[in-house]
## 1
Amino acid sequence: MTTQPTLFPMVPAITTVVPASEEWETDPAKLSFLEYRNRLIWGRPDAQGSRACINRKLIREPFRYTVRQKDNEYAFGEDPKFGEWEKALNCGRSYLAGSDTPMKEFLRRHMSSLTNWQKHAYQWCLANPSRCLVLVSPQLKRHYVIKKRGEYVEIGLPHHEWGGERHWITKGGSRKVLVNVD
């Protein structure tokens, strides 16, 4: 039996049964996104079946999204038209800043860090290239679609009424570049 400690002492801890034969996996290719994220927060069960918090920063960070997984429209995450990193950057630069803007200047103005959940989504999408994540938060009015697209992972807000039409790309999983705003 696995018990997860709770931040609210008056609320009973969440308890799940983990079969003794089950291998403890943290490979995103073998887990749903939410279970992958859960295992980054709560460690492997000990001999008594308890799971200790191994990432206090993540547990304090709000995650207000419902998550769906669906097929990636790009077979196996490959996009022959815009799947190259340099081509996507050049298209973004041309669209947002003009093709005469130096790439270094474009990146300085349009690059930002990924949040923790975006880093986890990046890792999950690399491990599951034929699938994509749809994260929706009515409270935050956000609807993200995250998928592998050739050499990079695309993080998109495809709807005006749910966060605006914006798309970022990331290749290394720590920084993202804004390449589209409508």
## 2
Amino acid sequence: MNAEDARAAGVVVGSYGAVGVGLAVAGFAAATWARGQFVAGATGGPVETFGPVFLAAAALSTTRAAMLSAVVLGGVLGSLVGSQYAVPERAGAVTGGGAFVGATLAGLLAVAGVLVGVGGDGATQVYAAGSAVVPLLASAFGAALAAGACGALAAEVVR
């Protein structure tokens, strides 16, 4: 990898890192809100039974939304960064590799934000951080495919 490739991959990974911080903050806010709605602010008899289940569902859906957004971001970054290359195969490799690393980073940050946000009373049903690793890596692979394909396409069309 030459200096141009390293800079391009750095843009992709850095962009995912910045978005990952935003996803962590948004995930924390969403999880805290869900905790307040389903556990702390809930009333009625079966709150201790259903509150944790609803909280777990909210945490899972927030995390999954963050993982899916990584794929969309891969397509956008792949197109932008790949358009700077003359060789489609090289553009695909650089953007795809950068997206895999970056999406993994963004996913880890999102998971951390969600888990910190739901922590405490009523979080007994929320997923363990380790159980998110395989779906997170699968999403990062999807992001890499999207970024690599869009990067190669952009290099082919733009240059």
